[in-house]
Fold:
Amino acid sequence: MDAARLLTPCFSSSMRSPSSRPLSRLSGAFRSPRRCAPFQASRRRNLCLACAAETLVAGSQREEGSSHSLRGEKGVEGGDLKSWLHAQGLPPCKVVVKERPSHDGKHRPIHYIAASEDLEAGDVAFSVPNSLVVTLDRVLGNETIAELLTTNKLSELACLALYLMYEKKQGKKSFWYPFIRELDRQRGRGQLAVESPLLWSETELAYLNGSPTRAEVLERDEGIKREYNELDTVWFMAGSLFQQYPFDIPTEAFPFEIFKQAFVAVQSCVVHLQKVSLARRFALVPLGPPLLAYKSNCKAMLTAVSDAVQLVVDRPYKAGEPIVVWCGPQPNSRLLLNYGFVDEDNPYDRIVVEASLNTEDPQYQEKRMVAQRNGKLAVQVFHVYVGREKEAISEMLPYMRLGYVSDPAEMHSVISSQGPVCPVSPCMERAVLDQLVGYFEARLAGYPTTLSEDENMLRDGHLNPKKRVAVQLVKLEKKMLHACLQAVFEVINQLPDHTVSPCPAPFAPQLK
Structure:
């Protein structure tokens, strides 16, 4: 099964305009088998078999013929995505769709957007009319319902994924067929032609052993399952979907694995628009991601204007060069989880250190009050940004020292003071620093490979792409952990007396 297939293709219904929110009901012959007469159910099965054999099957001989076979098709039912967009009102633009090979011969090449002519910073590369942009107000047919759903039970991604799954049921008769076909072709793959770890096997997830990202993948997977179980809510509340598919309840029409694949495909290409209503803030934009590559140090963004979504480039491009856009201030763990790539030059990359005051400490409540007074919580998350590890350690030290205070008189002095500085004895300072050293060393020991081993693996030009992107991620995490260790050792080296033993700390803060 293809990783980002939105659903098994079958069914047809009448074609509609993208701007028409009330959707026509399906004819009785295409309703669910449990509502159909025997001859109708049989006809439906035959239709599904015909669809699966002839249309929308990624990797099939028919579609693998690429541009040659597509020349025989015409109108919105065939041709490339850009031609379809122009036929539907896309104004002249300065980009072209190109392709590069996939790392796996079983997969079709990756499409990407490149400049069709030389561009200067400030040029409008393209402007996609709102009529060709998929947003929740279109999906649900009601802006109020869109806001209600997405602020309570379901994410925008789940709603958009469900909509495309239903749209794909119409096959070539769906208005969005060329766009959905392109999403299927991309299969949720990132710049390295790698799918999100949400679609990796257990063996492949082992590449992330030692990294907190593996737990994030499993947590996200559980979140997708919870959203799947709430899909029927969307169907009942969205008048458009209910009218078009009155007997196709989502959790009965689509297995979880199909929904998960659709969710990941939408996740890899959804755009977060600014200065628009909640019902339009998440959008699927043809010519946008995944055809546009993300770059952390880029400042170009897809922007909503009065009647379109446009891209203004932030740098000059030569004709044929791939165009990149900003992916937001996301760490590499999020880039891998959402888009299947890691950015080695990501200034927003970070690791997380969670520190918490010991709840068994008799002075826990007093310490919690002092922490809150200084802008910290009883369970405090510290973000350690790449290149700013020393700053992070400096921020952690006062919090850790507070946790080590044990004498009631000292605690009273801390409560009376107005600043974050606790009275620090030499043995307490050494205990705090030793705990930090032990914590960072334990995290590094949790990885199955060392930093030097990772660097050696990345020199292998034949390394499996999924393993390559995973090794890139853990290598960058280890570099930050080593930098944290180095920062702690620098503080230790500044201690006036290195013979002082650390104080015992029965209620030391806990680090995760």
In short: The CA atoms of residues 37 and 386 lie 64 Å apart. The radius of gyration is 27 Å. Residues 465-493 form the longest helix (29 residues). Residues 1-78 have pLDDT under 50 and may be disordered.
